[in-house]
Amino acid sequence: xxxxxxxxxxxxxxxxxxxxxxxxxxxxxFVGTDAPFAANAIYFVLTDRFVNGDPSNDHxxxxxxxxxxxxxxxxxxxxxxxxxxxxxxxxxxxxxxAGYIRGMxxxxxxxxxxxxxxxxxxxxxxxxxxxxxxxxxxxxxxHGYWGVNFYKLDEHLPSRNLDFRQFTAAMxxxxxxxxxxxxxxxxSPAFSMPVRQPQYGQIFDKDGKLIADQQNxxxxxLDPVRNPLHRFYHAYDDLVQLSNNDDQNPAVLDYxxxxxxxxxDQGADAFRIDTISHMPTAFWKQFAARIRAKHPGFFMFxxxxxxxxxxxxxxTWPRNGGISLLDFPLRGRxxxxxxxxxxxxxxxxxxxxxxxxxxxxxxxxxxxxxxxxMARLNASDNGFIDANNFLFTARGIPAIYYGSETGFERxxxxxxxxxxxYGQQRIDAASNSPIYRQLKRIAQLxxxxxxxxxxxxLPIHFAGDQAAFYRVYQQGxxxxxxxxxxxxxxxxxxxxxxxxxxAGRWTPAFGGNAIDVPADGQLxxxxxxxxxxxxxxxxxxTRPDLVAELTRLMQxxxxxxx
Length: 562
Ligand SMILES: [Ca+2]
Ligand SMILES: [Ca+2]
Ligand SMILES: [Ca+2]
Hints:
- This protein is α/β, with parallel strands linked by helices.
- The protein has 14 helices and 22 strands.
- Helix 8 (328-339) runs antiparallel to helix 10.
- The structure holds calcium ion (CA) (3 copies).
């Protein structure tokens, strides 16, 4: 941190003066974020593992001696399985279930990378065994993160009359935005193969011309000075055997800006950026500026797989490109709290960073409890229900990994079933799961409640099995105060809320009788075990201590360097 400690206070003082000047004219604005994308909750699909909507694009005979379809991970215990081949999921499978996803209360679907990946299983690296990490031998590009031509769709994804442009258009008609997962740090595994394999370590341009080739050489043997095909890469390694794109080479930036502009032009609504911390912020600043020059306000969030907010906050700052992030630091605490019934809600509090935190805007972070790169949440059904009740009411943009709505493969890491095929049958039976039913209830509430999407968050009680906080959205004609009460205990809990409670008629969002709260009164209610209540008041803010606290939250909302 290059800034002296004094400066944040100075900046806050200036901001305070500005906010004051702006608000004297009318009703003050209390908003967590104005980013339109934050209105959506995200459903994250590993496309190949969701639903096979079109068997004609499965390419089951692909790869010859290194075939690519249906490759079980060896060493599975009885009754368990994992797979490192393609299993057939495609655009059609997602589109066929757009109603299922939309109906659950999601407004966006994040899909794994769509670009062309190698047509053989990889023969280098370390062998994939049950539960192993950072092993790739025998694996295919079913996950999409091993791009070889970033301008071309992988052949497993589209169907007749369903290319990417047609897919995004159909998703939009179904009320869903498409978040495209993008990679710029690396291509495919590029060395350690016993015999060189086609496409691995190579990159092709828009016209199919070879523009980079690691030639199965270890990075230190690359010769970018003399060999033009080596110039795309650093001559040192980064992640396992993956090629390491040279962020200093302007041709690399041009290539990726061109590719991802193409997909944005074809209807991608937002980007999730893979391995963002493996490229310097200078690269991302230029990348974001060029994408947004054509697509103003284009929302992007990065994956910096790091639980330290000190390390990752910088990516969100405007001077570094203003790219939001997956909220890893909060994710760590969410897993701690909801995997362990005896945990304390207070553990979440200090990872919210609601004032003077490390992020440009904590309300734009994408919040989650698991994904494809870590063990799925290892919680009971009640643990999932409690986690979802928190995720969909607290600050941030919730992202749910496919299958979590039924507790699919809970606790399982990558080569233990984390990425298993979900399939139409499980989707059709999802409503039998109590996790699904409660998720749908709270996600639909968020969908209809601006304060829960983008409102300021004011915590009032985080202790033991209970949490209580306000979410406040006051802008233009919209004036909404939500009081959220969470109980993760096994018995009903009494809440007596008086702190900052504005007088008025509070209505329970899930139905029931309103409560008329007098001035300096209390809202008293009992929240059932593993349940949530949200009370709403639609009125301008008048209670002085509440207004003062929200004004402070507003002024100190982001990092001083924002
Ligand atoms: Ca298919
Ligand atoms: Ca391919
Ligand atoms: Ca790198």
